[in-house]
Amino acid sequence: MRAYDELMAFQRESEALGQVAGRLSWDQETMMAPGSGAQRAEEMGALEAVLHTRRTDPRVGDWLTVSEADVQNEIEAAQLRLIRHSYDRVKRVPGDLAVALARVTSTAQGKWAEARASDDFAAFAPVLEEVLALKREEGAALANGGDVYDALIEDYEPETSASDLQAMFDAMRPGLVALRQAALDRLEAPSLQGTFDLDGQLALSRELAQVFGYDLNRGRLDLAVHPFSSGSGDDVRITTRVSEHDPFNCLYSTIHEVGHACYEQNIDHAYHLTPAGKGVSMGVHESQSRIFENQLGRSRPFCHWLFGRMTEVFGDYGIKDADDFYACVNRVHRGYIRTEADEVQYNLHIMLRFDLERALVSGDLQVNDLEAAWNDRFKADFGYDVEKASDGCLQDVHWSVGLFGYFPTYALGNVYAGCLYQALRQEIPDLDTQLGQGDLTSATTWLRENLQQHGGRFRPQEVIAKASGKTPDSSPLMTYLEQKFSALYSG
């Protein structure tokens, strides 16, 4: 047997165990009883110990050395590149640190949910301090003398640095702020009225999931405090949340998570349970969820179709026609919650988090000062006060589970989505007609064939460039936003 074949057989078992760990996390957020948290933390720690041992096994290094000298095709080269990247990184992290992180983030996740429910940041701060201390230690080990925050970003968006992201944000901010102000000054949109049956929301969510191509035979839809997608290959699960006064929260959270899930379900089956068998980066992942949710799901023609379906399900809800429904879905509005933000303001929410977490990781901002710093920054950026922690620094789950460096990939995903949408419209001239019929087949097929099927075969910016025909930059996104919202707020 070739060294490559031995390596891939070993790797397949590691990938399978990683999927089991992911399923434990899914269960914790959806099904697990509240009193089971301490035991789950021990379980996660034990499984991480096994995974860390496998990931740092000296045989992996030996197999890599031999295999890298005997590469027979492009796919083998991609698999070895991904394994090498992971192996070289994980070797720098001590095993006891990896186990400690798994345990404390499992515990912190439950404490975050409790603190969020009671709007009590002080109750969450001590465990967040533990998570942050461990992430700083991990980042320092990974950085090997380089920038700690850059080392953490590498887990989510390889070959991207904080300085690259800062330059992108600095270029985007003036246009976003100007567009927001113009929209807030002029855009008057109707709002939903009444209450919306929760079972009806979930039934329509399941319908929308399938309209966008999600295979429920290899997945499921459940409820969670914070919507997410989990898994890859033939077991990809999504969650959403419901509010009796805001069905858009449920419906568009579902469409967003379906974008993530379809990416994972549509990867070439030959790559399953291999390093190439999952999304190549979180920025690319977010490009799929954001193009599903926004450019497709919030488009005028699709909104016209969805207006009809919502009327059939819920009856009269205060919106007179499809055009008013489109304006309602895309209303630029004051609000606190990132996941509920309109397209114009969404990236401003990300820029806030990006700056705060960089300061936390560097030590320029202390955990005990985070709530005040968040509230001050939000007032400066958005112009009004945060009244409660669940609308501020407790609204997102990410820091509780140690995802420092993750937030900027949301904005990067929007940029990638802008590039993809520009190409998609050129390739499918009658896209609007299809969307108006609730038919996403051509759009989702194009995304599957040009991007999703490749999994981790290509580097992040490479796969976006191959699909869109251009080096990624923010200009297509900004053009899309300016054209869409200028038309909306000009009447």
TrEMBL record:
Name the Gene3D superfamilies on file.
1.10.1370.30
A Pfam match: Peptidase_M32
Which Enzyme Commission number(s) are listed?
3.4.17.19
Molecular function GO labels: metal ion binding; metallocarboxypeptidase activity
Q: Which InterPro entries match?
A: Peptidase_M32_Taq (IPR001333)
Q: Which PROSITE patterns match?
A: PEPTIDASE_M32 (PS52034)
Output the GO biological process annotations, alphabetical, semicolon-separated.
proteolysis
Superkingdom of origin: Bacteria
Q: Tell me its cofactors.
A: Zn(2+)
**Which annotated residues bind Zn(2+)?**
H256, H260, E286
UniProt keywords, alphabetically: Carboxypeptidase, Hydrolase, Metal-binding, Metalloprotease, Protease, Zinc
- Entry keyword annotation includes Cytoplasm: no
**Entry keyword annotation includes Protease:** yes
The record's catalysed reaction(s) read: Release of a C-terminal amino acid with broad specificity, except for -Pro
Looking up CDD domains in the UniProt record yields: M32_Taq
Q: Give the residues annotated as active site.
A: E257 (proton donor/acceptor)
Which PANTHER family does the record cross-reference, listed alphabetically?
Answer: CARBOXYPEPTIDASE 1, METAL-DEPENDENT CARBOXYPEPTIDASE
Entry's family note? Belongs to the peptidase M32 family.
Name recorded for this polypeptide: Metal-dependent carboxypeptidase
Q: Which organism is it from?
A: Roseovarius albus
